Amino acid sequence: NPADRVSYLCAWLALVPQGLCVVYATLIWSSREIEICLMFAGQMACEALNWVLKRYIKEERPREMHGKGYGMPSSHAQFVSFFSITLALFLLFRHVPHPTDTHTPFSFTGRVLLSLLAIACAGAVAASRIYLTYHTPKQVIVGCGAGAGFAIAWFIFTTYLRRAGWIEWALETSISRMLRVRDLVIQEDLVDSGWARWEERRKRQMLQGPGKKSR
């Protein structure tokens, strides 16, 4: 409804999964972090699970919605639930950054607040599916539950891969070395490592600058 500002906002919220896929692709290409690759792999596996569930349950969308495809569970709700819960689990239980000369990382309280913000945003996306009558409340709730449950299972699985040494083994393979895949985001801020290197190089250039000019 063009006259309904809430529905207009909900229409934009419907684009969040597509936007997150762009974020995934950008971070994977720019950082080559294996943790982000694992998260994206889990996200795609969660999407595959949604595809299977919809065709197994075969529940139609609300009658007010004249669209195609089954509605149970909501793929949007499942997508954002997986993302927000996985991000929260990572921030609270796996990400332990260390302070540097140029950066002070988020405290545990800050990471809790960031996790709650991500979950709240996911809730807004899920609620928009009900407001726009694309899904029934039950379809959205089941989608949120499926996404959250799969996120917890995926986090346990990737924790096992780390503790069993499979991640270290994967990083030593020739293809990982060729693609320069790394595993720094567990203990470092995603952007601080590059910033620290730039600061160090800039300071060296400033110290060497006068000497070069005198020659």
Structure, explained:
The protein is an all-alpha fold. It has one domain. It is 72% helix and 0% strand. It has nine helices and no strands. Helix 2 (16-31) packs antiparallel against helix 3 (34-57). The longest helix has 27 residues, at 137-163. The N and C termini lie far apart (71 Å). The mean pLDDT is 86. It catalyses: a di-trans,poly-cis-dolichyl diphosphate + H2O = a di-trans,poly-cis-dolichyl phosphate + phosphate + H(+). Its EC number is 3.6.1.43. Required for efficient N-glycosylation. Necessary for maintaining optimal levels of dolichol-linked oligosaccharides. Hydrolyzes dolichyl pyrophosphate at a very high rate and dolichyl monophosphate at a much lower rate. Does not act on phosphatidate. The chain crosses the membrane at residues 6-29, 36-53, 73-93, 113-134, 140-161. It is found in: Endoplasmic reticulum membrane.
